[in-house]
Amino acid sequence: MSSTTPSQTTAADTLTVRVNGREVVVPRTMPEAVSGKAVPTTMIQACEAAGVTVPHYCYHPKLPVAGNCRMCLVEFGTPALGPDRQPLLNPDGSPVIRQSPRPAIACATPVSPGMEIYTDTDGVHAMRRAVMEFLLINHPLDCPICDQAGECKLQEYALDHGQAASGFDEVKVHKPKTVDLGPRILLDAERCILCSRCIRFTRDIARDDALGIINRGSYNTIAAYPGRQFDNNYTLNTADLCPVGALTSKDFRFRMRVWFLKESKSLCAGCGTGCNLLVGSRENRIHRFTPRQNDAVNSCWMCDEGRLNYRWVGRGDRLKSPLNRRSGATEWGTVLDETADLLRNASRGSVAVIGSARATCEELFLLKKLCQHLGARSDCVPREGEADGLLVSDDRNPNSHGARLTGVCFTEIGINLPYLANDIEAGKIRTLLVLGEDLTKPELELPTDLLGRLENLIVGDILPNPTVDQAHIVLPGCAHLEKRGTFINVNGRVQRFFKAVEPPGQAMPETGWLGGLLERLTGEAPARSAEALFNQLAEATPALKGLTWAALGDQGVTVEV
Amino acid sequence: MAEEHRLITKQFREAGYTPDLDCYLRHGGYDTLRRALRVTPEQLRNEVGVSGLRGRGGAGFSCGLKWSLVDRRSGKPIYLVCNADESEPGTFKDRQIIHLDPHQLIEGMILACYANDVHLAFIYIRGEFAEGARILNLALTEARAKGFLGKGILGGTYDLDIHVHRGAGAYICGEETGLLESLEGKRPYPRVKPPYYPAVLGLYQCPTIVNNVETLCAVKHVLAMGGTEYAKLGRPNNTGTRLVCLSGHVQQPGYFEIEVGAVTFRDLIFDPAFGGGLREDRTLKAIIPGGASAKVFRADEKVTLGGPGLEGAGPKRKVDVLDLPYDFTTLTAAGSMSGSGGIIVLDDSTDIVAALANLSEFFAHESCGQCTPCREGSLWMAKILRRLGSGQGRAGDADQLLHIADNIPGGRTICAFGEACSWPVQSFVGKFKAEFETKEAGV
Amino acid sequence: MDQPPPVPGVELELPAALTAEIDEIVGRYPQKRSAAVMVLHALQDHLGYLTPDAMEWTAARLELQPIHIYELVTFYPMFRQRPVGNLHLKVCRTLSCALAGSHQLHAHLCRKLGLDPHGHGPQTTEDGRVTVEFVECLATCGTGPVVLANDVFHEHVTPGTADELLKQAGVSK
Questions:
Q1: Which candidate, A439, B128, B162, B198, has a CA 20 to 30 Å from the CA of C113?
Q2: What is the widest separation between alpha-carbon atoms in chain A?
Q3: Which domains occur in chain B, in start order?
Q4: Which of A40, A105, A137 sits opposite B376 (nearest CB)?
Q5: pTM of the complete model
Q6: Domain range holding C65?
Q7: 3-state secondary structure of A23
Q8: Is the ipTM of this complex over 0.90?
Q9: Is the CB of residue B250 less than 8 Å from the CB of residue B22?
Q10: Is C33 in Cβ contact with B170 (below 8 Å)?
């Protein structure tokens, strides 16, 4: 096989091809999307390496190849061989290229040494134009009422590769519309181009082989088995994968035109995986989460539970104003002064802190400073669930490593809680600062009247709960979607996120009021920005040594934890 | 004087021949197998290679070459599947063999399996041939009982079993990778090639040979008479005999076994030994030469043969279609194909638009719908033709048909169905355009 | 996430001989899924058509999801999800038979049985006894028009011989 390699200087594990005349060196094999097995590098991968985008519908780098849409057809040639199986050379020494009489789909066709791929010829454009025409003849062309409009590959490619008019003048094939595939996904079979991405995703990635194609030929239709719900925790990924408006999210459907959405890079805080996502918001209201590709974390996917976990951010009963129930103060300045006084006057050893592994590294960093200043013991609240072997982690806190690395809690989160509870009951701890946790939740198995024994309960949170109700001082904070910060996921991936929407009322990022308290207590104002705080934390923490906010980039950095 | 040359059909067309094992044995059945088991599989493969046998299913791919491509070093089992999904309109030979001489097919299969170190083989028979499946199952039971199949065939060390697998009504299962998907219990979507060449990644991702019924019967005769002798029949690169099916407007439709290239269309249609001519007072209008997907010939067409770059070369010359010898290379050079050997004869009573509409309806019904051009294009063409045929033609319909048909074939689809559904349209409309344009006026 | 278990507890009353036959069929193949079409044939022959229970039973028997079976049942025209008549006449529609008069034959049968002569798919008489279906090429092109009556081929069928067929089946006088 390798004996026919043209006399090019190619390393054993790479080969050289030309894409539209430009030479590019690619690995001979690449990992297969699902199995990870080494398989020959394909034309579409070589084109990508050359910076040439080949339009495609069914191909997806994270799914097995299907080869059915035919949009990625390209022309190509290979070095001609003489009777001695040696490459024939032109007078100038370049290899003679034998043009293939037939096109090839770039997604499935392996590259070979010296291959020339042409993506910009009249022939290729004609083939794309034809595929576009075929895809559109039975399509309803209902873009004005289609959720996909604005991020639809049919629209985009119709503009790039299609034609304005079609010769189609027949009755279209009609198929089921508004098919309830499952609790979160609707199908409009007429919009479907049968690329089979959804089928492959749910079969090969979600491992719930629930979808198929029924009927035949032009009448082919995506379907679940009648009476069976398409209901796993990853179904909404099929709406992302669907290159057209066939699969839509019931949650997002008809909610907002996508071109109005502002997209902010964020993370899912639903568990320790830290799936990267984009927050789609408009006028300070979140309309959807979509996964943001990060191959070190979540590939292109996220679970439905995490994706739909945003509505509460806009709840009307959010905590909007600081409050000292004793003084009646509702101004940040006054409330913080009063809180600082209270902490200052507390006797050493009588203050404890219960933080949250849902807080950001920067918040936990400041919280630890506060603990150190007050001589307060601290811990966080564990959150455990069942891992699903895919993305959902058994650790439902997004930042357990952050809580450990900052020293707010020990290796086993929550190990201190019973001791702290004992000391509260024993009257040793009389002032408790709680950050973002409801200590009355039954699964914590804390004594029911515990909080009532405290002299001072200071609670920073974002939504009302029984702990907030009992607090003497309430400090309203922000959802992570309303601020910037970093989380460290279960595998030690340090990832940053950005603000998508403004917090309600006077609610402020926790670093704001924590900084305010520290300033009042120590006379020294800590840094305010997430960048500066992270950089200080990294400087101070051996595991994060050398890291900076800027160096994290959008994909994060994995550290030893 | 043109005549048949019967090898495969010789015995079962004799009076009194029955499909049971006794009759087959009385006629020397399984003798070839007995002899073959004494030589090595490589020798048998070599004989088939020497014979020049080309596949009789439609593509005419060299059988020896197909076998030589089998990956024998994968460590995986090698499978053989007999393609008995006979579905190409105009083709009706395989069912005859199955009904009248099942043991000939089975012996051919055992030989092919032994030659390729296959221990499990299937006969994929189209679902409508329920009777054929019963006959084959009976014959297989007989063969097992006599030790021609099973463990230690004929007392030797070679093991093989063959099972009959029925389809359920799908032309696409005749496409070999669609067939394999179907045999795996999936929708018969043809596989993307590369990488899924059956010789390497076939049934259950194992090396697999898919051969047509007639091809496997021919294998038996190749091995019975020797590859060199077999290659003396027919013409270079067009060796042996093949079954030709004649239907449509001839006096004597039926199947005939000819030496490849030894007879012409004129012989096949008009000779009393074959079609026996047209119906009274009719003239020839068109010939579909190799199953419905083959490009049609006009009866008055002159075909250019020879010249550089063309298969079946020789000097460049114009040949009357009726004088074309019926073989693989000539018909390819003439712009069509001998395909599955199904010739449909159309006389001057034929409404050419209706004939094409009929075929396009077939292809629209049979497109599996996996890939875009064929899924969308096949039905689109059928819809236009339905209109044209029912007096609702519109100006530009003929050109529109050509536009669609030009955008489907030539490697744009996953399998050759793209060609199959568009070649008839390209050729019918291209060669009889006036008749289509007449209908555009809505008559 | 684990694959949901194949439909549990789909009960299908089948004679022992049939389940034994199905066991034998399944055993022929290196992979169970291969047996799907053959098992569906066996069930359809027994039940007359493929009920949801039959499809779910097949899926469970072959350790598949029901959608895999549904994909096949809706693809292959020989599988049906509703009953047909005791006499199922499949008239070949494709070119060679059409040239020999199969469309006239189909229309004749439909008119005679009170069915729509322009209908394409399976049409069953009101009394449920006869089904007429226009089907694609039956690979018997030399002797058209061809009719597959249940599983038996009838060649050179004329309206007259078709009437005879109906008579023999006791469908008409």
A1: B128
A2: 97
A3: 21-232 (3.40.50.11540), 240-347 (3.10.20.600), 352-440 (1.20.1440.230)
A4: A137
A5: 0.95
A6: 16-75
A7: strand
A8: yes
A9: no
A10: no
